[in-house]
């Protein structure tokens, strides 16, 4: 969250090699010995035979970018959408409609070294910085999950024709394990994620988990509309102080240096970071970003009790929006654990979770896309009832977007 948006160099041209239906892309940064190519082909063929990496060649691919960085990508799709996940860090980096090729979660950090922040990535076991002592012992900003190689726990990579996949990561320093199951809707532009967190330690511990959804141009511009059902919040002072929740903000109004700023559109550089709390009396919380000019809406919905907080990180360069983080999770305080533990609650709501030894916790969310008209006014309300997900336009009664949603019971 607290990093600068930087442009990524254009990807160098790739030479494609296809062996037994498995796609390999090899960069021309440096010549690779022919014997190494043969070894790679043999390895991938064996994996195909054993069901280790790929079953049909279109759902996963290995991309060798240089001598030190290998990207393992899982691709899930249905008739309407494509969703791609990078197993190096577990980030969702592509989610787009097949007939509208705009990927809203296309933000990338410039550096290609770990941790590599991009798209919709997971902050786990913390949101924010480690202490100086933790940093010396190898802990990273936003935790270890983004630095770990995620594994496919089953011998089968995907099921149901490329619509379901499981993956997992373990935090070697934090002693936590997370198993993620992704399910695509059969025919709607939706995906559903369940993540099971297990404490591998012999003791209970505090932790945080935040879904860091990062959007960028062209979907992000000064006209993009942000809507949610949060109630109150505060500007993150980013100075390590214990009490940051004054003055109290009411969405979408923010107050920075005495100036009132609307957070519905990204037209002011400040505040850079702010946090809001959802009403715990509401079963579901949600966030949407709509760009009528691009005719596209991106949204997420989850159970309020599982992720009671949402944090907004905004980055602007020369008056132009370059990144916007919609970060829903278990905390609203971007500080090291000692500060989080001392503070404990904000607005009478916990700012961390606790997991006992050997305990398993589960959290879920739905992600979705929708086409919208060019005069779309934004989202006023989202409902999940009777297996129907209904997105109601702000101040409109006749342009509801309705999806069949089989995950009513989540």
Which helices and strands, and how do they pair?
Blueprint: E1 14-19, E2 22-27, H1 34-50, E3 60-64, E4 70-77, E5 81-86, E6 91-97, E7 120-125, H2 132-136, E8 158-159, E9 164-171, E10 176-184, E11 190-199, E12 205-215, E13 225-228, E14 230-235, E15 253-256, E16 259-262, E17 273-278, E18 284-291, E19 296-303, E20 309-317, E21 320-329, H3 337-343, E22 345-346, E23 349-350, E24 353-355, E25 360-371, E26 379-385, E27 388-393, E28 401-404
Parallel strand pairs: 2-3
Antiparallel strand pairs: 1-2, 3-4, 4-5, 5-6, 7-12, 8-9, 9-10, 10-11, 11-25, 12-21, 12-24, 13-18, 14-17, 15-16, 17-20, 18-19, 19-25, 20-21, 22-23, 26-27, 27-28
- The percent range for helix content is under 10%
Mean pLDDT: 84
Q: Tell me the total number of β-strands.
A: 28
| Main sheet: strands, sense, barrel | 8 strands, antiparallel
Compute the number of structural domains: 1
Per the principal axes of the C-alpha atoms, what is the gross shape?
globular
